[in-house]
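Hi everyone,

Forwarding the result from last night's run.
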Amino acid sequence: MRVKALGAYRMTGIAKASGKAYDMGKLVIEVPVENMATPKMTRVGYGSTTNELDVAPESVAKFNFHYPLELDLEVDQVIQFGSLQAIIVGARPVAVVKAA
């Protein structure tokens, strides 16, 4: 999967409500604004917005790139919250071809 990446981060801490420890990784990507309409809401827009994809926390160190850039993502399947989930475990920068 190829994405335009804007950054990556890892967060660790203790959840305020439950008191349980957490450790999560995220990849911030650019996505087109999605126009949509439901009976209670309409959204019309242009350009781009951001979304966050799950990254294996121990893999975030592999995302030490100069952002923004295009990445080919390496995805794996893990059991998370009792079901099989796709999670990003690595990435490779897309080579930029410069005009001659």
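The chain is about 0% helix and 60% strand.

Cheers,
N.
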